[in-house]
């Protein structure tokens, strides 16, 4: 009897512990959340107290970082574009040419291909090959030769210098010299071309000077426009012929 009464008394503290345990656990869980709530309220208070000048300064600093990253990206693109050692240019050409000293100018169309090796920095050596084709207006003559076909081929080489390097645009200038061969008797049915006022078929000195503008489609690819002058020496006289070309530039190799 005494044992039962004692065991009943011992059960009361155990029941009290079981009843108070959930309340203690909830109190323990809620205690760490108070600093977080206090930190959030402090942040909101700081943001509320910041002045328009401070917010403007933060925006200026962010814009400065964006501009700096953009400049670095453009600098890297320019480096990737103009660090190639070789350029291959191929396309179509145009030339205004006088095929005889007493004849009028005619328009010739053709092709051109050149390759440049940049030996040092922006200075390179270019090898240039061109072909021009057209018809000559010989007028009336007793040989019944009317608008005979003519052609010219040039083989030139010389220095090329790149004087502007941009992300989208690039400028170069070149001077070339070499040989040019004219075929002026191919359309005269065997008649000597000089009888109808044309120059004779011969190989003479050619000199070309011009400037090129490139529009970069990517670091290795560009579209090139090149106005130029081609000086020829047919008939022991100099001809100053305006022309140009439009082509595609492919860059390859690394310095």
Describe this structure in words.
The protein has three helices and eight strands; from the N terminus they run αααββββββββ. It is α+β, with helices and mostly antiparallel strands. The chain folds into two domains: 1-49; 83-254, Porin, CATH 2.40.160. The radius of gyration is 42 Å and the shape is elongated.
Percentage of residues in strands? over 45%
Distance between the termini: 106 Å
Low-confidence stretches: 1-25, 27-36
CATH topology-level fold name of the largest domain: Porin
Mean pLDDT: 85
Layout of secondary structure:
Elements: H1 2-30, H2 33-49, H3 52-82, E1 84-97, E2 106-120, E3 123-135, E4 149-165, E5 169-183, E6 202-218, E7 221-232, E8 239-254
Antiparallel strand pairs: 1-2, 1-8, 2-3, 3-4, 4-5, 5-6, 6-7, 7-8
How would you describe this structure in keywords?
single chain, 255 residues, alpha+beta, Porin, 2 domains, eight-stranded antiparallel β-barrel, 8 strands, 30% helix, 47% strand, elongated, disordered N terminus
């Amino acid at each position: 009897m005494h044992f039962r009464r004692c065991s009943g008394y011992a059960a009361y503290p155990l029941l009290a512990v079981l009843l108070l345990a959930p309340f203690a656990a909830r109190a323990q869980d809620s205690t760490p959340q108070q600093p977080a709530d206090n930190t959030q309220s402090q942040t909101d208070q700081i943001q509320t107290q910041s002045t328009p000048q401070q917010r403007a300064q933060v925006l200026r600093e962010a814009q400065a970082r964006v501009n700096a990253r953009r400049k670095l990206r453009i600098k890297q693109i320019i480096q990737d574009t103009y660090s190639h050692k070789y350029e291959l240019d191929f396309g179509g050409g145009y030339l205004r040419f006088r095929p005889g000293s007493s004849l009028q100018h005619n328009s010739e169309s053709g092709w051109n291909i050149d390759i440049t090796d940049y030996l040092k920095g922006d200075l390179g050596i270019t090898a240039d090959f061109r072909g021009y084709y057209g018809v000559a207006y010989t007028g009336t003559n007793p040989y019944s030769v009317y608008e005979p076909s003519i052609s010219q081929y040039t083989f030139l080489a010389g220095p090329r210098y790149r004087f502007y390097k941009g992300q989208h645009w690039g400028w170069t200038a070149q001077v070339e010299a070499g040989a040019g061969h004219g075929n002026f008797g191919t359309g005269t049915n065997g008649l000597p071309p000089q009888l109808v006022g044309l120059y004779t078929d011969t190989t003479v000195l050619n000199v070309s000077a011009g400037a090129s503008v490139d529009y970069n489609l990517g670091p290795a690819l560009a579209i090139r426009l090149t106005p130029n002058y081609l000086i020829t020496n047919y008939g022991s006289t100099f001809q100053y012929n305006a022309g140009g070309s439009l082509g595609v530039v492919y860059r390859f190799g690394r310095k």
